[in-house]
Every structure is written in C-alpha cells, then in structure tokens.
Specification:
Number of domains: 2
Number of helices: 6
Helix content: 25-40%
Shape: elongated
Radius of gyration: 20 Å
Strand order of the largest sheet: 1-6-7-5
Largest sheet: 4 strands, antiparallel
CATH topology of the largest domain: Helicase, Ruva Protein, domain 3
CATH class of the largest domain: Mainly Alpha
Distance between the termini: 27 Å
DNA sequence: CCCGATTCCTGTAGGC
DNA sequence: TGCCTACAGGAATCGG
C-alpha cells in the first residue's frame, strides 16, 4: 500500500533510468485506471524529455520539457525496470520506453492508480490544489495540527489521514505514529493538547523517515521487486499485530475499525 | 460545510 | 481440494 515512503522509494528506483531520458514511446495495454488514460497521451508525450521526477503527497510528479505527468500508485501500483525482451504480465497496464531502450513498466492489479497528463505545470493541476502540508517539511508542526483540529470532531486517526490536513500518511503509518505518540486512535482530534500534538508530529516525521531509510535499502533490487519496502514490515509495532504483545508493556494489541479502516493500538500505552 | 458511508477493483486468506 | 466470502485500502463522491 503505497504511502509517502513507498512513493519516494519508487521515485528513487525509476529516476536513474527516467530522468534526462527522452520518452521514445508509451505503450498502453489497459487504459481503465482510476481515471481513464486519455487516448492521445502517447502522441502528447512522445519525444518529450524528462526533466525531473518529484513527489507531492502520494503523487509522482514527472516534469517534462512540455507539461508533465501526475502518477498515483493507488493501492497496488508499482513500477519495475525491464527491457523489451520481457513479456508483460496480466496487470502490466502501460510502459514508458526511453530513448535508451529501457522499459519502465507499470503494474497495478486493482487499478486504483492513475496516469494524468498536464499540459502546463503539473503543480497547478486541480488534483494537487487541496492538499495539506508535507509532513517532512519544517512548517508541519504540532502547533499546526493543534490549530487545524480545533473545529473538527473526527477521530484523530481519521484527522491525520485527511490529505487536506497532512499528506502521505496512510492507514499503516497512522497507526504506527499514534502508537509512538501514545495517543488512542479513537480520541477526538479536538481533545488533544498542543504538547501531545507536538509529540504526534514528531512521531509522524520519525516513522516516515525511518521507513524511507528502509525502503532505500530495497532500491538496489528495485528492478526485480514490486517496489514495496519489505524491510519496514519488520519494524511495525502495532499494525497487523492484533493479539500479539505490545513491545512496550506486553499487553495484547487491539484492533477496531475507525473511519472504515482497520486500526491497531495498545489499550495501555495509548490514551 | 462537515464528516461518515459508499464506491471502485482483484488477489489473498480463511472457513467449511 | 475447491468453492465461497470477507477483507485489504487511497481517495473521489455521495448523502444526511
């Protein structure tokens, strides 16, 4: 499930082959993603040079010499680096083919991902206009979370997963961050002190940074993997660990559905 | 406007 | 072993 660290890992994996390259071809085998890939995209980007590949929220932002692309991995999207000798598999929906002959192949079994063309600056695209702060930037602080939460009524877990508040935090890292900060996921976001929000903001930064570092170790094998950082899974303290002992107090980890998402927490350490 | 519920999709896991 | 159902979740959209 690509959250911020997985998107960063993906970008790091494709950058060596994509940045500076000219897009020789785009082969679309399945255009029905989250939004249909527009029919003329191949014509639009053929011959375009890839200037840079960046991240905004969970989007991969490809800056071209004419316009750009917004790519979202949805839930199961991933890229792998290959060549024209390999046969695309069932859910390999499109390939970028560079002037060096490298095939950058997109796979997405559930098709929740998207490939969007932007005529102009992709950062001006409507999809990016309502996004909240980047969690790893300096302006994302406990104070910010505190002020944003005052008029809200939702559970804190839903609040930090709201992409108009802070971006990049999905279901897994939300559970992990709240555990690190000692905050119960069901607590109303308006009933959390500024000092606890400071702890939470720091926890989010730490969890995401650690995971990026773990994902970084998989970049070497990127061409052969599905792009997911398998290493961070071993670091998870609560996610998916229902019924297993809390690493801090030994009490068994609980789980319940909050805002339609399964949530994991320690009833003793989180209040 | 706010926020919970629903929807899209398919591989996987678990029950019988 | 095989069939069936529940579940996984990012984010747009719906509806109260």
């Amino acid at each position: 499930m690509p959250e911020l660290p997985e998107v960063t890992t993906t970008i790091n994996g494709i950058r060596p082959y994509f940045q500076g390259a000219v897009i020789a071809d785009l082969v679309i085998r399945e255009k029905r993603l989250r939004w249909p890939i527009r029919a003329d995209l191949k014509q639009r980007i053929q011959g375009c040079k890839v200037i840079d590949i960046q991240r905004r929220a969970k989007y991969i932002v490809v800056i071209l010499d004419r316009g750009g692309l917004l790519i979202h991995l949805g839930m199961t999207g991933s890229f792998r680096i290959t060549n024209s000798q390999t046969t695309p598999e069932k859910h390999d929906h499109f390939d970028f083919i560079t002037d060096a002959g490298v095939v950058i192949r997109y796979r997405d079994p559930r098709r929740f991902g998207s490939l969007i063309f932007c005529e102009e600056d992709p950062y001006q695209h409507e999809r990016l206009s309502k996004l909240g702060l980047e969690p790893l930037e300096a302006d994302f602080t406990g104070k910010y979370l505190y002020h944003m939460s005052r008029a809200r009524k939702m559970a804190v877990k839903a609040f930090i997963m709201d992409q108009s508040v802070v971006v990049g935090v999905g279901n897994i890292y939300a559970s992990e961050s709240l555990f690190l900060a000692g905050i119960h996921p069901r607590r109303k976001c308006s009933r959390i002190s500024i000092s606890r929000y400071q702890k939470l903001a720091n926890a989010i930064k730490k969890i995401l940074t650690n995971s990026i570092d773990m994902g970084g170790t998989t970049i070497q094998n990127f061409a052969g993997t599905d792009g997911r950082p398998g290493y961070f899974e071993q670091q998870l303290l609560v996610y998916g660990r229902v019924g297993k002992p809390c690493d801090y107090c030994g009490r068994l980890i609980s789980s319940q559905v909050i805002a339609q998402r399964s949530s994991f927490y320690c009833n003793q350490c989180q209040t």
